[in-house]
Amino acid sequence: MASHFFRTAFYATAAKKSINVPFAAGRTAATLAVGLSFGAQNNRTNAVTYDNMYTDRFYSGCSASAGKGLLQSPLAGYRNLQLPISRNYSSLQIQRVRHSAMAPAKNRRNLSSKDITKNMTLYTSQKADIEVDPKTLEFKKPTGNPLVLMMAWLMAKQKHLKKYAQIYTEMGFDVMVVHITPWQLLWPAKGTQVVAAETLKFLENNKSYAPIVMHGFSVGAYQLGEIMLQMSRDMDRYGSILDRFVCQIWDSAADITEVPVGVPKSIFPRNERMQVALRNYTLYHMKTFHNQATIHYMRSSQMFHSTLLKAPALFFVSDNDPIGPPSSNHAVRENWERANIKVTFKCWQKSQHAAHYIKHRDEYLEMLFQHLEACGILEAAGMLKRAKL
């Protein structure tokens, strides 16, 4: 059934795009390229990703017998250790739970979500329904909260993204999650660039969202590059949007050189043979469709390295991450520091791609809160006001 779908789906795509390749290569490409649409918007919640193998255990609970991988003990026992602690910062004294998303229900704020587009989901603590103009993406009644623009990793599940969003909504932020599919990644002109335009439209028409925090994962670095490329073509129009960003966080940022590694692991996390096959197709795709795909990756990468976003940055990486390796992230760091951008860099010896928060939760949150405070964003989110109550 699956193989029949794979062949049918890609043969139709190949015919539509008039791809002329030798029979053997064409059949191989035809069988593999299907993965590009596997887990698209309507079915992405059913897809299992490379990172989700570990996050499922963390967020859904795991038994003692299943305690292999990132967690070596049952989650129930781990939750018993989650007691409120007091964090003392220079500018505020506030009682904070180590991870608000894991706090008891009585300590949580109400969290609601709304799909703004097929690729954009808003998380907010506001109880009222949010009305959005479908043409301009403008909110008819602003929430009055600062914003986190969160660029998701490839084929991320919403239930996992929600946990990251809760970190911020508990502090008074709204979180706009931007996610793309493998098909959109491989065909930028009709995929990621359309999503970038929608993201810009939202930011432009919702000026009340200020300040803004950028929090990106993995392929989100490429997506931000596409957004900045569109900004660069009309700085008079979009320059004010850049001024609203006050800090940025990058978790396992992936560059163009990691596309053939990251895409197969995201689509076939447990099947090494299919990973190898899809990796070969991805390389074939990048070589064959240079003008339709690869050149856009290169331009986005160059823009990300030179960056229009000059806000202080925090990087999370690990030595054993093949998709977002320290080497490529260090290259970005060096370029940004030459542009007088303050960069904080955290590299663990062992961790998991786009899942450092799961493996090193306390340290991850500690550095995140310190970064937000150093950028002055906590005060903007109303943390000081709530601390005095």
TrEMBL record:
Gene Ontology MF terms in the entry: serine hydrolase activity
Domain of life: Eukaryota
Recorded coiled-coil stretches: none
Name the record gives this protein: GH20830
Organism listed in the record: Drosophila grimshawi (Hawaiian fruit fly)
